[in-house]
Specification:
Layout: E1 5-10, H1 16-23, E2 30-37, E3 41-42, E4 45-54, H2 56-73, E5 77-85, E6 87-90, E7 94-102, H3 105-122, E8 125-131, E9 136-139
Parallel strand pairs: 1-5
Antiparallel strand pairs: 2-7, 3-4, 4-6, 4-8, 5-7, 8-9
Length: 158
């Protein structure tokens, strides 16, 4: 099994610079990253902050399963990193940061897209939005941010 990956579930701010540096690999022509950033609106509501809750040991195991499957599907993928925060975070902060290092960009982009989609679908991390009007609500991952959220092509792992 390929162990060239890093997973963390943390309350601390994500060290994006360190993750980018550790994603570098001389075999890889593509080093891709994704930052899921807390935005200031959703479905017509002005968002002030998000709160994520997670059972970290289970979340890490589920992310590891996804990563192992991605490595098995494409030998061109060389490194994967996934860091997800939990707890409260304000607008503008990164709540999840992913990197994929691959020999070529097409498989890297596909792996990165698959990784974020599968984390959103399969990993027990729950998101609550807090709104400017004082209201808040837990969001279901299938609702996402728009009607096309989980509809784009990714690796079929069934």
């Amino acid at each position: 099994m390929n162990k060239n990956y890093f997973i963390d579930i943390t309350r601390a701010s994500i060290d994006i610079e360190e993750l980018n540096k550790s994603a570098e690999d001389p075999e890889c022509g593509a080093v891709l990253s994704f930052s899921g950033t807390v935005r200031n609106h959703n479905f017509g509501h002005k968002v002030t902050k998000l709160s994520y809750e997670a059972y970290a040991p289970m979340a890490k195991k589920e992310i590891e399963k996804i990563i192992v499957e991605i490595f098995a599907m494409d030998p061109g993928i060389k490194k994967i990193q996934a860091v997800h925060r939990f707890g409260e975070m304000p607008v503008g902060e990164s709540s999840i940061y992913l990197t994929v290092s691959s020999k070529h960009r097409p498989e890297g982009f596909l792996a990165l897209r698959t990784l974020i989609d599968r984390i959103k679908q399969d990993v027990p991390i729950w998101k609550k939005e807090f709104y400017e009007d004082g209201e808040s609500e837990w969001l279901h991952p299938d609702e996402g941010c728009c009607h096309k959220h989980l509809c784009l092509k990714s690796y079929d792992m069934s």
